[in-house]
Design goal:
2 domains; binds FE2/S2 (inorganic) cluster; Naphthalene 1,2-dioxygenase Alpha Subunit, Chain A, domain 1; binds fe (ii) ion; alpha+beta; Rieske Iron-sulfur Protein; about 425 residues
Length: about 425
């Protein structure tokens, strides 16, 4: 059980909050590359950890991330002009390079002033179809981490950004909670469940809801890793011909500060729950594999093909209580939720809890073990930073061998850990 104070520590991410200080020690995604489609195109206003920034692509095609408000008298650069190697404020025309250099000040001819001052600019990178920034202390900038989805051709990857009105932790906890998959997502995971049957959903190899056995009360085991932890959900499998019992295991690595990898039969789903502020989260969903993947298929399975809930143009998830979060109760005789699609269901559940849920009022059970570990690891990482140490995983620079494991049958001496040997388990070091 969390105390109200611990809940506050876990959920507040602004610059003056301990969690905000801890989160600022890492690189974060600020937008999808596709949101800055061309050099000198429209700038994008982005919100990260309770602060506003402007992201833009300059004439050379490189991305820049600056404070949103102009250093002169604080007009928004998000409505500025992007041209000739920089971004220009509409108010008095000051122009800034992506590194914060002041290139022009039309209403002040003093060159020494321009040379002496600099606009607040942040280290920015583009990799894996996303733009990343580091907004923490200058002397603590960590190595830029590499993920498996940075490799391979673009057609093997789909990136969806979903801006949801809920605290990041509510969304992230859903990713540490295997027992909800066969229930909340039963329309995708086990469509016969509500009729007391089992029907494995194995037709779509990009379905992250695919579970292979009818066991909704998995045993969880958790192991700390260099970057956070990984956990297994063990479901009871059918015995082998000689009677040997089996387990169906499904492994999820949880990567600080906001990431996890969810398995689908032929793809890995990387998910980052990036806090815009205490009350809103940008979920980045990255489907990646060794073969091409179709954006429309992923939108459909996620329930993001329904424009009442989500649109490509602004990435906002739109459910409100005005119409019971968009639920269609007339469908509930046939399907479980009256919603359609995995991300639609996850976002709805997080919103239904209220913007910041009160964790001091929960009733927890063994199936919540990985959720509890997430909270403890987060609090430990906050404690480390407040004590002047480094946060969990900040030195891990290469995640390319970290994998999730889709439902896999093990028996006898076989262990789940043997199937994810690149996951940096601390127990196996
Ligand atoms: S406020 Fe931006 S140039 Fe004056
Ligand atoms: Fe889910």
């Amino acid at each position: 059980m969390m105390t109200p104070q611990e809940n506050d520590t876990l959920t507040r991410v602004g610059p003056a909050a301990p969690m905000g200080r801890m989160m600022r020690r890492y690189w974060h995604p600020v937008c999808a590359s596709s949101q800055l489609p061309k050099p000198d195109g429209d700038p994008l206003r982005v919100r990260l950890l309770g602060e506003n920034f402007v992201a833009f692509r300059d004439s050379s095609g490189a991305v820049g991330v600056l404070d949103e408000l102009c250093m002169h008298r604080r007009a928004s650069l998000a409505i500025g002009r992007v041209e000739d190697g920089g971004i220009r404020c509409l108010y008095h025309g000051w122009k800034f390079g992506r590194d914060g250099t002041i290139q022009e000040t039309p209403n002040f001819c003093d060159e020494r002033f321009r040379a002496r001052m600099r606009a607040p600019a942040y280290p920015a990178r583009e990799a894996g179809g996303m733009v990343w920034a580091y907004i923490g202390p200058r002397d603590k900038e960590p190595a830029f981490p590499k993920f498996g989805f940075f490799d391979g051709p673009d057609e093997n990857r789909v990136i969806l950004r979903i801006n949801t009105a809920a605290n990041y932790l509510q969304l992230w906890e859903g990713g540490c909670d295997s027992s909800h998959v066969g229930v909340l997502h039963s329309n995708r995971a086990n469509p016969a469940w509500m009729k007391k049957g089992f029907e494995a959903a194995t037709d779509e190899d990009y379905n992250p809801g695919a579970i292979t056995v009818p066991d909704n009360a998995p045993d969880l085991e958790v192991e700390n890793t260099a970057y956070g932890f990984h956990y297994v959900a063990k479901r009871q499998g059918a015995p082998l011909a000689d009677g040997t019992p089996t387990a169906s295991v499904r492994v999820t690595p949880v990567m600080f500060p906001t990431g996890r990898i969810i398995p689908a039969p032929a793809f890995q789903f990387y998910v980052f729950e990036t806090p815009q502020d205490d009350f809103k989260t940008s979920t980045y969903l990255v489907c990646h594999g060794d073969k091409p993947v179709n954006r429309e298929d992923i939108k459909r399975i996620m329930g993001l093909d329904d424009e009442r809930f989500w649109r490509e143009a602004d990435c906002e998830f739109r459910a409100t209580w005005d119409d019971r979060l968009g639920q269609d109760r007339s469908r509930m005789a046939e399907d479980w939720t009256g919603f359609r699609g995995i991300e639609q269901e996850d976002a709805i559940i997080a919103i239904s809890m209220g913007a910041i849920v009160d964790r001091s009022k929960e009733v927890l059970i063994p199936a919540d073990m990985a959720v509890v570990r997430l909270r403890h690891r987060l609090l430990e990482s906050v404690r480390r930073v407040e004590a002047g140490e480094d946060p969990i995983g900040v030195h891990v620079a290469d995640y390319t061998d970290v994998r999730s494991l889709v439902d896999t049958t093990i028996a006898g001496a076989d262990t789940w850990q043997a199937h994810v040997s690149g996951n940096m388990s601390e127990a196996r070091r």
